[in-house]
Amino acid sequence: PANPVNITIWTYYNGEQLEAFNALVDEFNSTVGKEQGITVESSSHGSVTDLENNVLASAEGKVGAEAMPNIFSAYADTAYALDEMGQIADLSDYLSEEDRAAFIEDYLSEGDFSGSGSIKIFPVAKSAELLFLNETDWELFAAATGATYDDLATIEGLVSVAERYYEWTDAQTPDIPNDGRAFFGRDAMANYMLIGAKQLGCTIFDAQDGSMTLNFDHDAVRTLWDNYYVPFIKGYFSASGRFRSDDVKTGNIIAYVGSSSSATFFPTQVIADDMDSHDITRKALESPKFANGEDYAVQQGAGMVVTKASDAEIQASLVFLKWFTSPEHNITFSVDSGYLPVTHEGNSIDAIRISGLALSDEMDEVLSAAVDTVNENHLYTPRAFSGGTNARAILEYSMSDKASADRAAVKEAMAQGQSFEEASAQFLSDECFEAWYQDTLASLEAFQG
In angstroms, how far is the first alpha carbon of the chain from the final one? Predict the structure, then answer.
């Protein structure tokens, strides 16, 4: 306290997540921080992209940029880029073996860019991908068709259900052909590509020491195509809003795969138009996997990166981060945000339930499915490499943008009088896949080596 230290933290948290984080910062400042002379100042910098841009601008010393924070939220590729600029502190010397053993090992190794045991990313909260359903409208469809939650356990089953939903909604207006509604959407296409490929035995980005070897396996990628692009062209899948929770709210879809942390943004109403507005409830299930695939799930959720500064500032940053990730406080953040604790002790639904915190049935369901996902699968996230953010962006947009554009072309052709078969023929051909595959392969090859 005689030599106080101020610590700045930049995050991308918004809404309930930001409120939960700030409440814990306030608690730290009034307790441990006050005792040890540490004051934490937290600010949200909008989206993940906004935060990345602001941090890079600070690191590069651009005119008008703020001073570098002591801590900022980051994914591996951004942390790696800042590390290459010499901006990141290695926390390995500040953590004992006992400290390290408390964390789920895969979470700590994410920031070991060199493979030497370094810790460049401190895990604070993780999330799993889950399948979220508009339970209210699902129950109407299920009652009419016999569809069950078990049908959604595999990606192939999900596609089949989406086809049945399209046909069921199409049949409700027999005088208007091909006006069925989409069932499903995805929030993060890069996750689908990377994790789907892992389930199929292919590691698309195999990175070591910042260098990437590309494995864009033709057969695995074709399977990914057949289970996203093809049902999208047929109208079974859709994406129109910024996030798929937006599409649930407008009634464009009734199911999506997204982060467990997106649970707090799931709508409570569908507002399709002035004539169709109704309350809905949410159902959370584990994300479907390929039927004969291996048990892989995405490891996601940004960690905290500590920037190079005085030893006192780095140690003060660690005091806060270790306090925040203690089970008591990490579970508090989880219950309020949908993120998962990062320690072995905290990552247990029983620990969450007996914490004494108010846990709604809906959040209990979300966290239960997320904890099961973590405990029952191999967690995977690509190791960082030079240009990794741009390479990942190709996986994020190359198939999804083409699917959206081509589906729009199909709908336009049908509006001009073509049958669906005529309008979609060119897009559902082998030649269409091959052209896209070769273009995407060439784009990704630029990031090899």
Answer: 50
Among 72, 93, 87, 81, residue whose Cα is nearest residue 7: 72
The gap from C-alpha 284 to its chain's centroid, in whole angstroms, comes to: 15
- Rounded to an integer, what distance in angstroms lies between the CA atom of residue 313 and that of residue 38? 9
Does 323 score more than 90 pLDDT? yes
Predicted confidence (pLDDT) per residue in 93-121, tens digit: 999 999 999 998 889 888 888 888 899 99
Q: Which of 301, 334, 337 is nearest to 17 (CA)?
A: 337
Do residues 293 and 66 make contact, with C-beta atoms less than 8 angstroms apart?
no
What is the C-alpha R_g of the chain?
A: 23
- Judged on CB neighbours under 10 Å (0-12, 13-18, 19+), 51 is buried
Tokens 């309350």 identify what position?
279
User: Exposure of 366 by Cβ count < 10 A (0-12 exposed, 13-18 middle, 19+ buried)?
Assistant: buried
Mean pLDDT (whole number) for 300-311 = 93
Strands 184-186, 255-259: pairing kind: parallel
Q: Using DSSP bridges, classify how beta strands 71-74 and 276-279 pair: parallel, antiparallel or unpaired.
A: unpaired
260 or 225, greater pLDDT: 225
Tell me the angle at which helices 189-199 and 388-415 cross, rounded to the nearest 10 degrees.
100
Nearest in space to 394 (alpha carbons), one of 433, 449, 431, 445: 445
